[in-house]
Description:
The protein is mainly α. The chain is built from 13 helices and no strands.
Amino acid sequence: MKSLNSVVKLIRPIQWVKNLFLGAPIFFTPSAMSIENIVNVIIGFFCFSLLASSIYVFNDVLDKDSDVFHPIKKSRPIANGEISKEFAIALAIVLFATSIFISYKISISFFYWSVLYGTMMLFYSWLFKQFAPIDIIVITLGFVIRVEAGAAIIDATPTVWLLTLTALIALFLALAKRRDDLIEGINKNHRQSLSGYNLNYLEHCISIVSASILVSYVLYTNDNLAMERLGTSQLYVTIPFVLFGILRYLQILLVYKRPSSPETILISDRWMGGVVLCWLVSVMFILHS
């Protein structure tokens, strides 16, 4: 019997925070807010989380030999020998099959997006992650698919602005993660795609993308069609929170040189956690009061 703690570490529930993007469509579509839709989105969140965990397990199986030499990943259950490859593969298959089955029960369109995401990320683990900048583009597409999947649950069409902002935020996070890898001294022997990056290139890209996020959000909050769909013209008052969030994230990344994973920062940095909470509360009040 495998240690429950090792299994939990293997499926990485802390990473499930990324699947909150499934809730973006219902959050920004006040007319779709209902008990039934909220329940379905919550079920969809856990369904997608199981799917993502199956990919994490599969990825760890493929990376076992290289993870042994990674300063952090060497402690993962497969790399340190706590869990065998055979058990991990069986677990990944169960998680993948369960999530796909549940997605079919939710809706056929959500099922299609789930299959697309699962297939794409399996190819990412096997092939795409070896090539720059294809690796970060695939990661970005994964977040866009999350939003599309969330929209499918409530039978809505996400706006171009929502998809654009999602893509930019995901690209920003992916670039920051690659920068972390270089700062930690990880080289192409562990992640081949790192041979296509250096700090100067990544920091220029991060600056461009962070500016694009702010400009896109400002335009979104002042777009006539967006205001009509949201049912309010007051969303612009949340711009300072977004500005502060971007500046704080860059400060953590470039000044303090701390790890940039969003789940870590949200938990450990009170300023970032506070500004995200303020943004959420203000948007909820404006859209749903």
